[in-house]
User: Fold these one by one.
Assistant:
Number 1:
Amino acid sequence: MRSSQYLYTFRYEITESELCKLESRYLFHQEEKNKVLVSDIKTEPSNSAFIKGRLNIISSSHDFATLILEIKKEGICHEGFKIEYLVVDGDTTAYSDRLEKLMDIGYSIEGIPDYYKPTITYGLCYFDNIWSFGILIKNNFEWFKHKQKPYSYSNSISMPIAKALVNIAAKADKKSKLLDACCGVGTIMLEACFAGNHIEGCDINWKLCENARENLSYFNYTANVYHSDIIDIHMRYDAAIIDLPYNLSSRATDQDIAHIMESVAEITDRLVIVSTSDMTNLISKVGFRIADHCSVPKSGKTKFTRQIWVCERIG
Ligand SMILES: C[S@@+](CC[C@H](N)C(=O)[O-])C[C@H]1O[C@@H](n2cnc3c(N)ncnc32)[C@H](O)[C@@H]1O
């Protein structure tokens, strides 16, 4: 009934909405709408900060009674299963009705359920006038462990932004070779390693390089961190992420920013830049064009807006 294999649900703050949509354009070639997306592309929910879960659809139908028949036909038998109802945009099913539907599904599966320590979790969802049933893979938030990294930095980017930058840079290709050109303490590198991406880092500040190395080894990740001015890096990368100095506590002049941009432009054809100022002129000056863009307002004590620029080499 549903032609796509996976239904994804999302969770994000209003300030992260543009970033989540930008990430989903690169992961799924489409935007999530009202925190739901259906796709044939399989991605790991925990590799994004915004994907709440993925429903691996087993059966779907416009009609709930037909869905139950379809599930029975599957002959599912699993000890210790659990079923969850995913409430998504447009679903007005009353709570009592939802519980009843979960019971109906429970009776269609062989095995004794276990709601506290399930061996498998199934999901039921009503979206776009279609009932979908399948295996639910949730974001396990294991990446939260990175909060415990030994070294932090006042200029570090947040984990949700770091994860999105990796996904946007890699475009879901685990083989692509990424560079974190101004890696600081390695916040972006940690998320790339967690997701199984290939990444290297570089920073001009030796102390921050040491901190990045220790942060990586604390979680048993292996990745090269070069203590170098970016101009001296000559390897080629499929994409480079540049979290530019913001001029807040890591001071940088316009010349410093131009120097970083010109240097990175020499070693890749694809850039994902984080800045707090307009980069339009500099991006074209180094021979790139803006393929996509979004803003991420920062809340908290220091309020400013980060700009994320996805750029490709012209010609
Ligand atoms: C905004 S911070 C990056 C923070 C990092 N994403 C993190 O989460 O820790 C910018 C970094 O650029 C580095 N940097 C400045 N000029 C550089 C250059 N020419 N080559 C390499 N790194 C440079 C600074 O040392 C600083 O760590």
Number 2:
Amino acid sequence: MSEAAGSPRATDEDAGQPLLPPLTLGPITVETPVVLAPMAGITNTAFRRLCRDYGGGLYVNEMVTARALVERRPESLRIIKHEPDEVPRSVQLYSVDPVTTGHAVRMLVEEDRADHIDLNFGCPVPKVTRKGGGSALPWKIRLFESIVSTAVREASRNNIPVTVKMRKGIDEDHLTYIEAGKVARDAGVAAVALHGRTARQHYSGQADWSAIKTLRDSLPDIPVLGNGDIWSAEDAVRMVKETGVDGVVVGRGCQGRPWLFGDLQAAFEGRDARHRPGVSTVCQTLLRHAQMLIPYFDGDEHKAMQDIRKHVAWYFKGYPVGSQLRTQLVTVETMAQLEELLGQLDQSIGYPGDAAEGPRGRAGSPKKVHLPEDWLASQELNEDQREMIKAAEVDTSGG
Ligand SMILES: Cc1cc2nc3c(=O)[nH]c(=O)nc-3n(C[C@H](O)[C@H](O)[C@H](O)COP(=O)(O)O)c2cc1C
């Protein structure tokens, strides 16, 4: 698969010992308690296939908007596709109203399209929070309760576990995670995942793992998963040790690095094997990724090439690839051209070390959170907000 080399263990006495027991989500047992974070535009069947080839875990698809799903829009049906060998089939729903949530979950259950459903309450993008959705929603705690309990009720018809993924809150003055965690638990979710940032932080600064520990301690009776700034297997081990979580959720750290799931599995099994791919493995993986995107986009090679472009910088982070070649790769038009461009690289170049490690993907600075008028005035919906919620669901991309 790719070059592997040793790296220091967390501690010597941990060698050979599993770090955690398997993660139990209702009837599902996830042997390696690692979750691929849902990432819109990234975690499609092609990328999940690459990750799954390296290690165990739960691989969540890109978020799908409940309303778009119920309306059977082709893009939504594409998003919830799974390969025949993908078990469990995990779908993330975004919704702002209980009725549409109920219809979407019922559709997934009755048509046997999912084994696990995650609800997105973490998205910070303005187009979503402006309508009261994503990370803005748990503030309206009764609306949150109603969405979660509707999803749990509909999913329970087929014993399908529902989980919730959320942020700390809107900002430091409007933290919601503990109350929302308890409400979700009481509504019957199988687990709660916390990204240790507020909406205001977006992707800036560092994820607050102490909040993850606080949530873990506040919810002793259900699994709590920690999310934010896991860039290596060592980070995952550290998060487990510092917070006591039952599993980790990994997003940006695996962009351009599906082999991270191999490292994570090894670390969770107490082994010190780590992938250290050279240029040749990276090129082969990038090509395979691009190839698998073609059937994902129903044979549309152009769409597949447009999609693969965003992965190029992640795959080659830290590798000596000249700026001219990088520019050509991010404007690639065909599979043949991609092969030709990658063929120009010296395939004997090895792993560049630290330059390929560390943060990758979205970062930036804190951002004003765009909210509906008077949203923060009360945790209850006012009449205008209730009307807006009814009409609010937008077809949107995640975050
Ligand atoms: C490109 C991108 C798309 C994302 N899309 C979603 C999404 O659809 N649903 C969701 O709950 N979170 C989404 N997120 C947030 C991630 O799931 C995760 O919570 C966040 O990146 C923090 O984890 P990390 O530090 O491991 O990246 C997205 C993040 C990125 C970078």
